[in-house]
Amino acid sequence: QVQLVESGGGSVQAGASLRLSCAASGPTSSNYALGWFRQAPGKEREFVAAISRAGGITRYGDFVPGRFSISRDIAKNTVYLQMNSVEPEDTAVYYCAAGRTLIPTTLTDYEYWGQGTQVTVPS
User: Do the Cβ atoms of 109 and 75 come closer than 8 Å?
Assistant: First the structure.
């Protein structure tokens, strides 16, 4: 069992930076790759980024611009999503997830999900 708790969301102006955090816990949580998805109103949940268990491999969704960066603090068992120069199109609920494969990139690759954190960028 893996528990995931996201934080760092909120309402920010376009052009600002935001860092989302996701703390993973559970006896086997360090054995999982971690990733971020997002879901905008009326849209499907889409892959944003993933990072391997040891943090050495990262993947980004096709739409993800160079403004986003994923990182992982192994000691804290926490994954971060750094979002720079946010845009109204980034408005969504951002979910953290844990999966067993080396670098999971699809919804079905992930076994555990957090509750999500809302990011709002007013236009």
Answer: no
Residue 43, pLDDT > 90, answer yes
Q: Could you read off the pLDDT of 78-105 as tens digits, one per residue?
A: 999 999 999 999 999 999 999 999 999 9
| Cβ atoms of 22 and 79 closer than 8 Å | yes
Q: For residues 37 and 45, what is the distance between their CA atoms, to the nearest angstrom?
A: 6
Vertex 76 angle, CA 58 and 11, to 5°: 70
CA dist., res. 55 & res. 27, Å (int): 18
Q: Which two tokens stand for residue 92?
A: 């969504």
CB atoms within 10 A of CB 108: 7
> Tokens at residue 120, please?
């709002």
Pairwise CA distance, residues 86 & 6, whole Å: 18
Tell me what pLDDT residue 47 has: 97
Phi/psi for 45 (5° steps) reads -70, 130
pLDDT at 65 over 80: no
